[in-house]
Specification:
alpha/beta, Rossmann fold, 2 domains, 6-stranded mixed beta sheet
């Protein structure tokens, strides 16, 4: 039986501003840099969340969510479900707060992510991707106890992510579009809550790999859909097996559309980012740039691409660089 959760509601600017103050001692204000591609390309800016202490944006939401827990909730310890980045974020924030942490982690997650969660003091319970996806809906996993922190469908988690949107608007107030990779939907909901509140005219685009694109299908159908042909890939931090109805309800007032890219387009974006800006980004962090380069987000800028993380096994990164050479 699924846990009883509060109804979906908008995330307010007041909540986002409060979250910014709350996480300031844990998270960094990441730079927004222009990707120099020449006159034949739009003005693309990269929001470098790979520079967070855990090398991923999830620390924003995790730090805010842990900070908002009561003493009684902390005393129970915390747990979450993750392919790696949310787990690192919750483990980092929990360690700083002196709270025990367990992560129900996807067993096929990159070794670098699993090792870093352990190094942060998290106890790992390794499960299949399908098992983790089901647990996200149930908000429970057999044998795991404590205070559950949902890695995307949580108001405080989303408010933490939304602080990134405030920074984007301050650093590039003339932004015309923002592109975020989508897995569960917490990132794009948070960023969209902030940028749309500041300027409703800004277009908000989701980016998904063609091996896991349930949001694109859902938007086309007008209702949350499953993606039964889902395939695992190096884009492990985005693209789910389905869109949860609650997250569909959160995203649809904010998202203007979804751009589906191929794995090859994502690999080329990864190489371009490395060559032009010397940035190592994971697959999910390269989806927005791959989407921007299709031209579907427009030809005018600034177009902000959220580089959501840089937690990729170096061996995998080198293989992709070798495969895209020439």
């Amino acid at each position: 039986m699924s846990a009883i959760v509060p109804p979906v509601r908008p995330i307010t600017l007041a909540e986002i501003e409060a979250a910014r103050g709350r996480i300031a001692g844990t998270c960094v204000r990441t730079p927004l840099v222009r990707l120099e591609l020449g006159p034949d390309f739009p003005d693309i800016r990269l929001k470098l969340e790979n520079l967070q202490p855990i090398n991923a944006y999830k620390l924003r939401g995790a730090a805010n969510a842990v900070a908002m827990l009561s003493d009684a909730e902390r005393a129970k310890g915390v747990w979450t479900i993750s392919a790696g980045n949310a787990g690192q974020g919750v483990a980092y924030a929990a360690r700083k707060a002196g709270v025990p942490c367990t992560v129900v982690a996807i067993e096929t997650a990159p070794t670098a992510k699993l090792e870093r969660m352990r190094a942060l003091g998290a106890k790992l319970v390794l499960v299949s991707y399908e098992g983790a996806w089901n647990a996200l809906d149930d908000r429970a996993y057999p044998g795991v106890e404590g205070t559950f922190i949902h890695p995307f469908d949580d108001d405080n988690f989303i408010a933490g992510h939304a602080t990134m949107g405030l920074e984007i608007m301050e650093d590039a107030p003339d932004t015309v579009a923002v592109i975020c990779g989508v897995g569960g939907g917490g990132l794009i909901t948070g960023v969209g809550s902030a940028v749309k509140a500041k300027n409703p005219a800004i277009k908000l685009w989701a980016a998904e790999p063609d091996t896991a694109a349930p949001l694109s299908r859902s938007l086309a159908a007008g209702s949350p859909q499953r993606f039964p042909e889902w395939e695992a890939s190096f884009v492990d931090g985005a693209g789910g097996q389905s869109v949860f109805p609650r997250m569909y309800e959160r995203m649809t007032p904010l998202v203007d559309g979804a751009i589906v890219v191929t794995l090859d387009e994502t690999r080329r974006a990864m190489r371009l980012m490395a060559e032009k800006a010397r940035i190592i980004a994971e697959g999910a962090g390269c989806l927005p740039l791959a989407a921007a380069l299709t031209g579907k987000a427009g030809s005018e800028g600034p177009i902000v691409c959220v580089v959501s993380g840089g937690n990729i096994d170096i061996s995998t990164f080198c293989e992709i660089m070798a495969a895209t050479a020439g």
